[in-house]
Design brief:
By secondary structure, this protein is mostly beta strands. The protein is built from two helices and eight strands; from the N terminus they run H-E-H-E-E-E-E-E-E-E. About 10% of the residues have low confidence.
Length: about 160
């Protein structure tokens, strides 16, 4: 019982620090699957943010780069912290090892929870679903699929 009380007090203390309006973050879990991505999230209104992200893709025999935009609606008292959900769009330029290339467009939605510990350390747990189209010559890129991740970042 004492452990639960201490964890609760720490959680409350971390969630009551100064309000941040921007976060730079990266998803280290993606590296396990050959995907490196990083993003810049910034406040657009009191409870909404936009994220611009870049991505490097190297899975099996397919490599490429991409960019995306997410728009998040936060359900708490402020942006950057707490439960969030919103739409996302991405574009990827991919090539396989036989020089077959494709432009892939993806649209979907993401939901998650983001913490800011202390004044600067951000942790975002998220998941989503999306539809990808345009990769006719690369198998598996015209599909619906899920995503999940853990982003670590710096907030200010």
């Amino acid at each position: 019982m004492k452990k639960i009380l201490v964890i609760g007090m720490l959680f409350f203390a971390f969630n009551n620090s100064n309000a941040q309006t921007q976060v730079i973050k990266a998803n280290p879990l993606g590296l396990l699957f050959g995907i490196a991505n990083a993003g810049y999230e910034f406040t657009t209104t009191d409870k909404q943010t936009a994220t611009i992200s870049g991505l490097f893709f190297n899975v099996a025999d397919i490599t490429g780069v991409g960019a995306g935009v997410d728009y998040q609606f936060y359900f708490g008292e402020q942006s950057i912290r707490g439960w969030h959900a919103g739409p996302s769009v991405s574009y990827f330029s991919l090539t396989d090892n036989t020089d077959v290339s494709a432009s892939v467009f993806s649209i979907g939605g993401i939901a998650g929870y983001q913490w800011v510990f202390g004044d600067h350390f951000a942790l975002d747990l998220f998941g989503g679903i999306g539809f990808s189209s345009g990769g006719d010559d690369l198998s598996g890129f015209n599909s619906t699929g899920g995503t999940f991740g853990v982003s670590l970042g710096y907030a200010w």
